[in-house]
Amino acid sequence: MFDDDDPQLARLRKTALSLPEAQEKVSHGRPAFFTKKIFAHFGGTRKLVTGGMEQHPQALLILPDPMDAEVLMERPDAFVPMYLGPTGWIGLELETLDENDLSDLLTDSYRNTAPAGVVRKLSAKD
Length: 126
Hints:
Blueprint: H1 7-16, E1 23-27, E2 30-34, E3 38-47, E4 53-62, H2 66-72, E5 90-93, H3 99-113, H4 116-125
Antiparallel strand pairs: 1-2, 2-3, 3-4, 4-5
Helix pairs in contact: 1-3
């Protein structure tokens, strides 16, 4: 379901795995990055109002702070992913994100999902 040599996955992998105690696993056929809980997925699907589905194979799925979600959803590449969307997750196309945006979005999602002790390691790293 994904190409392990995908350059967008390589970008995501490099940044996500630089976070303290971050690991990668395949979940539902796609790469996911986690500590105790998943903080990012590579690729997602959006349900269309017509009932169909639209694949986003090179998307970043994150759990942003609710205060940031509204602003992120104004982006033209943003979408609400199936299954995860109702719990606050947002999808963004990786190719539209520069390295700073990618790092910031991953870090925010990480802070929203990782245990407090692990998040403290992130603060100590900065």
